[in-house]
């Protein structure tokens, strides 16, 4: 019997997963994040999963990778972008899965965009993705930034989702009601909302998401930045 995974919310869409074999950091936007629970200088990581190139996700990934020696796992062109800055990287493509020492990562469809701003010039870098992460007998779905999509039905039919990390902030991604429908399609046992209330444009009430998701038999934990759950 494994001891399970600890899932710590670090603010916005950033989480630290502590599995038996590795610390996995998701979308490390800490510098400039008004809700960051830690800093890029302190956070530990063995692997850094980055869903897309927007600053509120790619954020501190390269700096943390260089400091810790962690490997950045990202969609192909984004991995090349990070690698060109000196980070250790592992490129993947949407739909592709790979066994790592801690477990398996598969890239999932996300309907969104992905770009970097280089000196005022906006350049598209890779297609955005989400991640299915299997470790210690558990499956976590991290949606990244995305619209509600029927692809989630497919994910839910083919994978037992023990925990879904879903954006609910509206404007750029699903809002609370669409995210609750995502919970239903995914048949998620448990969910944690992310990507809301960091900035004015994504101010929403997570209680709406919690109430609607619970109708689908899903346990929702609305975490404050820094809080942790075990699955
Ligand atoms: Ni984005
Ligand atoms: Mn975002």
Short structural summary:
This protein is an alpha/beta fold and 231 residues long. It has helices at residues 55-58, 61-68, 76-84, 151-158, 176-186, 206-214; strands spanning 6-11, 14-18, 23-26, 47-49, 71-75, 88-92, 97-100, 103-109, 115-118, 121-124, 129-135, 138-142, 163-167, 190-194, 219-220, 228-230. A 7-stranded mixed sheet has the order 6-5-4-3-2-1-16, with helices on one face. Strands 7-8-11-12-13-14-15 form a 7-stranded mixed sheet, covered by helices on one side. Strands 9-10 form a two-stranded antiparallel ribbon.
Break the fold down into its secondary structure elements and pairings:
Elements (H helix, E strand, L loop, with lengths): L5 E6 L2 E5 L4 E4 L20 E3 L5 H4 L2 H8 L2 E5 H9 L3 E5 L4 E4 L2 E7 L5 E4 L2 E4 L4 E7 L2 E5 L8 H8 L4 E5 L8 H11 L3 E5 L11 H9 L4 E2 L7 E3 L1
Helix pairs in contact: 4-5, 5-6
The structure holds nickel (II) ion and manganese (II) ion.
The site of manganese (II) ion has 6 residues, from helix 1.
């Amino acid at each position: 019997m494994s001891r399970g995974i600890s899932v710590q919310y670090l603010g916005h869409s950033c989480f630290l997963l502590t599995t038996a074999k590795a610390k996995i950091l998701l979308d490390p936007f800490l510098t400039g994040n008004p809700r960051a629970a830690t800093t890029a200088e302190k956070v530990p990581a063995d692997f850094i999963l980055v869903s897309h190139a927007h600053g509120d996700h790619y954020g501190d990934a390269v700096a943390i990778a260089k400091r810790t020696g962690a490997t950045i796992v990202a969609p192909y062109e984004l991995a090349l972008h990070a690698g060109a800055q000196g980070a250790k990287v592992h490129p993947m493509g949407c739909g592709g899965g790979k066994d790592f020492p801690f477990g398996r990562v598969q890239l999932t469809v996300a309907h969104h965009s992905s770009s970097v701003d280089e000196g005022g010039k906006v350049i598209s870098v890779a297609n955005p993705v989400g991640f299915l992460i299997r470790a210690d007998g558990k499956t976590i779905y991290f949606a990244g930034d995305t619209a509600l999509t029927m692809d989630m039905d497919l994910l839910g039919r083919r994978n037992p989702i023990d925990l879904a990390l879903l954006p609910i902030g509206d404007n750029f991604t699903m809002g609370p009601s669409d995210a609750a429908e995502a919970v239903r399609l995914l048949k998620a046992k448990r969910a944690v909302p992310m990507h809301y209330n960091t900035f004015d444009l994504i101010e929403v009430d997570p209680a709406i998401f919690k109430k609607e998701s619970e109708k689908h038999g899903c346990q929702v934990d609305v975490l404050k930045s820094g809080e942790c759950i075990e699955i």
